[in-house]
Design brief:
single chain; 316 residues; Rossmann fold; Tumour Suppressor Smad4; 9 helices
């Protein structure tokens, strides 16, 4: 891994495939900006999906406590999962920052982290810190129970079907906001509302749903605002449930997903809680921070003030 910057310097976990190869193409430029700003950074590069989880654990075992994620929201999610699946130090001792290089860059949008690299590097240099809640979801792959941590937003139902399609195309080297939007519209043709049992604060309800979003953050899907009032350090999720709704009504209401007024729709319910359980006879697929996971039954919990993050400006 080269020369260690020590406990006071940064390690950068760089995803060369992020943003259709921007991670690889732009890294030399980003590194030069760090050097010009006299920020000590040692890079390590991911080689495959999931590799950032292992790299993060390895760095922490070597004494690293400051990690810059250079990639998209998926790379950041892997870094978070590396931090929370190691046992050598409390996760709250680790500081994470981000240089957004992905296609969505939804987490950084809420914290004023510029897409212009000069601006993003300046955010790292200023090192303004805040504590950030972390979500945890348990779910199934077949009969196997799994667990995943997430920093921004998780989704069930329609959202996760779109993400799954998009991720398959990403794996083939095709990724853009336009592809995500195309998948959103094309998935409406075949998607069916699903009967579910929902438990929030020990209160059960049964309904047919189009989708559920569980958010620490406000943005997903390249700028959609599914949980538009979420606060990342209040110890609670914002939960948005879009109940049974027709495809034409969804198309008509797409504007609401982007302008932050989704909760005004009569078929949408909003909740704030630290726990959510979703069960369904027909398995509902789940995604977290844009990473495709498994299916229901699922339970969501939150770890308040779990990690330190570097932010630019707070929009809240």
């Amino acid at each position: 891994m080269g020369n260690s910057p020590g406990s006071t310097g940064w390690f950068a976990i760089v995803n060369p495939n992020a943003g259709n190869g921007k991670g690889k193409k732009d890294w030399t430029r980003i590194l030069d900006l760090f050097r010009r700003n006299e920020i000590i950074v040692e890079p390590v590069f991911t080689e495959r999906k999931g590799h950032a989880i292992n790299l993060t654990r390895e760095l922490i075992s070597k004494g690293c406590r400051k990690i810059i994620s250079v990639g998209g929201d998926g790379t950041l999610n892997e870094v978070v999962n590396g931090i929370f699946t190691q046992e050598l130090c409390p996760p709250g001792d680790v500081i994470i920052s981000m240089i957004p290089v992905g296609t969505g860059n939804d987490w950084g949008r809420m914290f004023g982290i510029p897409l212009v690299y000069e601006g993003a590097v300046q955010v790292v240099k200023e090192e303004k810190l805040m504590r950030h809640d972390i979500g945890i979801v348990t779910y199934y792959i077949g009969d196997q129970k799994e667990r995943r941590y997430f920093i921004n937003i998780a989704g069930l139902g329609f959202e996760s079907v779109v993400v799954k399609k998009t991720n398959r195309q990403k794996d083939r080297g095709k990724s853009s906001k336009a592809i995500y939007f195309y998948n959103l519209l094309s998935s409406l043709v075949t998607y069916r509302n699903t009967p579910v049992e929902i438990i929030i604060d020990e209160k059960k309800s049964q309904t047919r749903i189009f989708s559920i979003n569980v958010g620490n953050g406000r943005y997903c899907g390249g700028g959609m605002r599914q949980t538009p009032e979420a606060v990342p350090d209040d110890g609670l999720f914002d939960i948005t449930i879009i109940k049974e709704i027709g495809r034409f009504e969804i198309i008509k209401s797409l504007k609401l997903l982007y302008d932050g007024t989704i909760l005004s729709h009569p078929r949408v319910d909003g909740y704030r809680s630290n726990n959510l359980i979703v069960r369904s006879e027909t398995p509902l697929w789940i995604e977290a921070d844009g990473e495709s996971l498994g299916h229901t039954p699922a339970e969501f919990g939150i770890i308040p003030s779990a990690i330190k993050i570097v932010y630019g400006t707070r929009l809240i």
